[in-house]
């Protein structure tokens, strides 16, 4: 604990529904504005009011954005969780509590510092309105942290001004609360602490945003006009973001909407609407989580077989069943990739950052229409609902929507008999028409039953098989169009392979550094889509041992790799995390080291993800 | 089916305003059982669209699963059709309608499709007042799986195997009115005189138009003791009225005494039969409609005709304030906010 700069973890323990979220975000955003990499994580219950909730902020000069264990400073304003919270603080760490009431002696332990601040007492004395007292109590502890951690106070004030723009009395009240915290620390404690912040310029053009917001924006940029959805944590804010951006950017001059959002009666209906709209030539999408994917499965099979584009954003949470609705996991891979009965498989896109959420959502509409099939974007609660430092969103001005093989009235005039399921180009992708295109040509009947090349109903086994084989050819085309994996090769021939995707990326990258420090060379591959491209096959073939990092119990990605590429299962070693918390670099390293050298294992041997 | 309808058509077949004959409105040959009520309904749809001079390609036909849901193949061969998932036609129709508000949407469903597996979607499409025609071809049984009772089978009705249905029937028409459907009609597949004008009115209705059509299953539910057999329905039918709802042109006004019936010529030359209106009957009054249905039910009668209509309620597009241009025709520059806006968005996250 000797004078660490920009490298520590602060955790806030609050009561759900007490307005702590905006105060905690104010803290994280200030660190961000100070130019220092920061990763806030909201750990919240499935509850509206009353249960414990935590907000964890990792500050990392080195730019590690994954979670790590160990709390250096805990701000505890929730008596319910205090007993456990006290134990979670690192040796030598700090425990800040509301000293309005005397701290229960049971919560005293050796080895940590206690900093009492009479937050409620000060708030009660300074503010009349009981609701305001509650909210501003939270700002008081931000003030205390400002002093203890040497935060830039002018940035905090600026952020408050931005948040309450034009509301003078609110700004003044917040400033007052902030000063109460600052002054109290000045009078009663030594500051700054042994770890603190120092202004940097490490973030450049980067932004701080959550993945769901990025997905909503990506759908607007990707040209989605119809959204149908059913509320479910943690995907709801995708719909909200899409609606907010549409209201800003998708109004006609007369104030009419260039979009339609339908809150459906359930996830089945949501997917039905998406398929109906896409069938009719509008880009449409839905967002859900695991339980919704289960409900949408029948429709996904229809869309696969009838070849209707559809975009589904699955913000994964911990399953099975209702599972842990407010905890993160990467456990819908198999359910999504093979959703529905019969020989069915779907495209998965696996973003790791908000920027990729934006880009891949926009791209998913191109892919769905080009390939006339559902595209499922798999994010998770961690990426979707937590703010992440991300590269800014980019959009190529020359970019044009790829609407796929859709025949116009003129083109229909020029061809003979229209065959909806004919493979005219040899890539497995047939031509389609929108309803209403031509008075006498191009109409066809879409169905989930077997059909011939001209969309006529048939139960002829040969015709059915021809169609299934064409879908297999199309699947080969898919592999060429989906985003390629990102590969990093260490140049050491004995290097182990590390394979990861989505939100396991940050901690995997950090784990690579830790392993390198241990003298273990690592080649890595970040999967960005399913089906896997040739580069994934090559990577797996060229490494003797590949550690597959994922956040589920059953090693679902590993299973998919084995299924798709006929490799020896033994060479793929699962590295798993499935307690609902984002995976840490320590957890990854420990599992890898244990595998490589089982005798050497001990929990203490590895350096803490440090520094 | 491996055989097709003959292409020959008589040169003197009457043409409609668009110059089309009935032929242009027909579909493939039906594969349903000979005498199936559903085929009569398909024929009525063909006739209604012909008489209204609707461009066939500007119609979208959407169905679920079941015998009824097969019928869209058998009418309007120049229209796109979508035979989707069991009980989920309403959601597919909703999405399709959101994408292009300018088409006519025909949703075809059955009693299993709507009153059982699809009840949730049926209820909610009514709630949203989606602008579509929703036809239930109601035969009280599951045909494709060989005759099991459906949820609209009347209590006490005997099915082909001789067992008596112990459960109460779901009355889709009453339910639709109760739920706020803006147009509810009931008819019988064997009564095209009534069915065709009702279909035409439903097509022109600017919102959700529900038609519950009793359509006997000749194979599995046409036996003595069944309350959905041809004989039973013919004996127990009681028409209320039919009313035309063609908007736009001058209103067609007709006068007739209560208790009389009259024929009215429509703008396009077709005729509509208006049966007597009972003195206490007002098709714009939900209470009156529900009462009449309940009374008829108590007397074991099937009340047919236009039961309820309200053209004042907003359809889903008006509720959502969507632009007049169909959403599927918006151009890229209307959809993508562009790089300048994106830079502002980025700035708001710093």
TrEMBL record, chain A:
Recorded superkingdom: Bacteria
Glycosyltransferase found in the keyword field: no
Keyword Oxidoreductase on entry: yes
SUPFAM superfamilies recorded: Pyruvate-ferredoxin oxidoreductase, PFOR, domain III, Thiamin diphosphate-binding fold (THDP-binding), TK C-terminal domain-like
Residue ranges annotated for the Pyruvate/ketoisovalerate oxidoreductase catalytic domain, each copy included: 17-182
Keyword terms: Oxidoreductase
Domain Pyruvate flavodoxin/ferredoxin oxidoreductase pyrimidine binding: 218-384
Family annotation (PANTHER family): BLR6743 PROTEIN, PYRUVATE-FLAVODOXIN OXIDOREDUCTASE-RELATED
Name of the featured protein: 2-oxoacid:acceptor oxidoreductase subunit alpha
Lineage of origin: Bacteria, Pseudomonadati, Bacteroidota, Cytophagia, Cytophagales
Automatic annotation (TrEMBL), chain B:
UniProt keywords, alphabetically: Oxidoreductase
CDD domains found in the cross-reference section: TPP_OGFOR (cd03375)
Domain spans labelled Thiamine pyrophosphate enzyme TPP-binding: 65-213
PANTHER family cross-referenced by the UniProt entry: 2-OXOGLUTARATE OXIDOREDUCTASE SUBUNIT KORB-RELATED, BLR6744 PROTEIN
Transmembrane annotation, as ranges: none
Name of the protein this chain belongs to: 2-oxoacid:ferredoxin oxidoreductase subunit beta
Domain of life: Bacteria
InterPro entries: 2-oxoacid:Fd_oxidoreductase, THDP-binding, TPP_enzyme_TPP-bd
Species: Algoriphagus aestuariicola
Cross-referenced Pfam families: TPP_enzyme_C
């Amino acid at each position: 604990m000797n004078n660490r700069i920009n490298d520590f973890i602060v955790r806030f323990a609050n009561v759900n529904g007490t307005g702590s979220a905006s105060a905690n975000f104010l803290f994280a955003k200030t660190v961000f504005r100070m130019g220092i990499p920061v990763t806030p994580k909201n750990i919240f219950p499935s509850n509206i009011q009353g249960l414990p909730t935590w907000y964890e902020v990792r500050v990392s000069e080195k730019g590690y954005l994954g979670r790590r264990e160990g709390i250096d400073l805990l701000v505890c304003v929730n008596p319910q969780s205090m007993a456990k919270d006290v134990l979670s603080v690192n040796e030598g760490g700090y425990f800040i509590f509301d000293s309005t009431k005397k701290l229960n002696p049971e919560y005293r332990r050796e080895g940590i510092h206690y900093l009492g601040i009479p937050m409620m007492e000060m708030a009660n004395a300074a503010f009349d309105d009981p609701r305001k007292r509650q909210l501003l109590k939270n700002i008081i502890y931000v003030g205390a942290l400002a002093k203890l951690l040497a935060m830039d106070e002018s940035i905090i004030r600026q952020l408050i001004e931005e948040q309450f723009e034009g509301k003078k009395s609110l700004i003044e009240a917040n400033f007052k609360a902030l000063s109460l915290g600052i002054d109290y620390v000045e009078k009663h404690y030594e500051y700054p602490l042994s770890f603190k912040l120092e202004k940097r310029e490490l973030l450049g053009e980067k932004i701080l945003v959550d993945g769901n917001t990025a997905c909503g924006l990506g759908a607007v940029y990707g040209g989605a006009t119809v959204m149908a959805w059913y509320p479910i944590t943690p995907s709801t804010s995708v719909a909200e973001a899409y609606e907010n951006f549409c209201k800003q950017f998708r109004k006609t001059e007369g104030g009419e909407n260039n979009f339609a959002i339908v809150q459906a009666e359930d996830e089945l209906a949501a997917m039905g609407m998406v398929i109906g709209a896409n069938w009719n030539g509008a880009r449409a999408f839905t967002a859900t989580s695991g339980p919704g994917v289960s409900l949408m499965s029948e429709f996904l099979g229809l869309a696969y077989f009838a070849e209707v584009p559809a975009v589904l954003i699955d913000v994964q949470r911990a399953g099975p069943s209702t599972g842990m609705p407010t905890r993160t996991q990467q456990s819908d891979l198999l359910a999504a990739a093979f959703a529905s009965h019969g020989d069915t498989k779907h495209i998965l896109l696996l973003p790791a950052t908000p920027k990729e959420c934006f880009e891949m959502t926009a791209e998913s509409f191109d892919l769905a229409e080009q390939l006339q099939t559902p595209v499922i974007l798999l994010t998770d609660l961690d990426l979707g609902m937590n703010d992440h430092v991300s590269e800014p969103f980019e959009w190529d001005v020359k970019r044009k929507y790829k609407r796929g093989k859709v025949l116009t009235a003129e083109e229909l005039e020029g061809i003979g008999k229209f065959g909806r399921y004919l493979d005219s180009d040899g890539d497995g992708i047939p031509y389609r028409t929108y309803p209403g295109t031509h008075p006498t040509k191009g109409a066809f009947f879409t169905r989930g039953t077997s059909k011939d090349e001209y969309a006529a109903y048939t139960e002829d086994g040969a015709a059915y098989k021809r169609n299934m084989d064409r879908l297999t050819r199309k699947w080969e085309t898919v592999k060429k169009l989906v985003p390629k994996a990102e590969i990093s090769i260490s140049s050491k021939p004995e290097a182990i392979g590390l394979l990861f995707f989505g939100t396991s990326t940050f901690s995997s990258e950090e784990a690579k550094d830790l392993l390198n420090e241990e003298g273990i060379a690592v080649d890595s591959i970040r999967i960005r889509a399913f089906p896997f491209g040739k580069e994934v096959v090559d990577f797996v073939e060229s490494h003797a041992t590949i550690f597959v990092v994922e956040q589920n119990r059953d090693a679902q990605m590993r299973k998919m790799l084995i299924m798709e590429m006929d490799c020896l299962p033994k060479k793929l070693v699962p590295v798993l995390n499935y307690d609902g918390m984002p995976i840490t670099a320590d957890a990854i390293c420990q599992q890898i080291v244990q595998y490589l050298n089982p005798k050497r294992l001990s929990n203490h041997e590895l350096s803490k993800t440090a520094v | 089916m491996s055989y097709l309808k003959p292409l020959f058509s008589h040169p003197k077949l009457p043409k409609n305003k668009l110059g089309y004959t009935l032929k242009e409105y027909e579909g493939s040959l039906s594969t349903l059982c000979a005498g199936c009520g559903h085929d009569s309904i398909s024929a009525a749809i063909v006739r209604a669209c012909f008489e209204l001079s609707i461009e066939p390609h500007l119609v979208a036909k959407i169905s679920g699963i079941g015998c009824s849901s097969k019928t869209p193949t058998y009418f309007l061969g120049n229209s796109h059709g979508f035979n989707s998932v069991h009980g989920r036609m309403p959601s597919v129709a909703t999405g399709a309608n959101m994408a292009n508000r300018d088409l006519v949407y025909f949703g075809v469903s059955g009693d299993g499709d709507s009153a059982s597996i699809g009840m949730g979607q049926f209820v909610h499409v009514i709630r949203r007042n989606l602008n579509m025609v929703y036809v239930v071809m109601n035969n009280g049984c599951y045909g494709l799986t060989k005759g099991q009772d459906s949820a609209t089978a009347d209590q006490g009705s005997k099915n082909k195997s001789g067992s008596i249905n112990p459960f109460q029937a779901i009355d889709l028409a009453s339910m639709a009115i109760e739920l706020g459907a803006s147009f509810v009609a009931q008819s019988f597949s064997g009564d095209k005189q009534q069915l065709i004008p009702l279909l035409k009115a439903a097509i022109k209705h600017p919102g959700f138009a529900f038609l519950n059509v009793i359509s006997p299953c000749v194979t599995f539910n046409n036996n003595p003791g069944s309350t959905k057999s041809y004989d039973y329905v013919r004996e127990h039918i009681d028409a209320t009225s039919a009313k035309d709802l063609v908007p736009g042109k001058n209103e067609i006004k007709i006068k007739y005494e209560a208790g009389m019936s009259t024929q009215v010529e429509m703008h396009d030359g077709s005729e509509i039969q208006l049966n007597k209106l009972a003195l206490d009957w007002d098709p714009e009054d939900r209470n009156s409609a529900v009462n009449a249905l309940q009374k008829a039910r108590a007397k074991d009668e099937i009340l047919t005709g236009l039961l309820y209509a309200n053209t004042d309620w907003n359809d889903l597009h008006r509720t959502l304030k969507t632009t007049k241009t169909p959403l599927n025709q918006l151009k890229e520059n209307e959809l993508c906010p562009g790089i300048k806006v994106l830079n502002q968005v980025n700035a708001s996250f710093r």
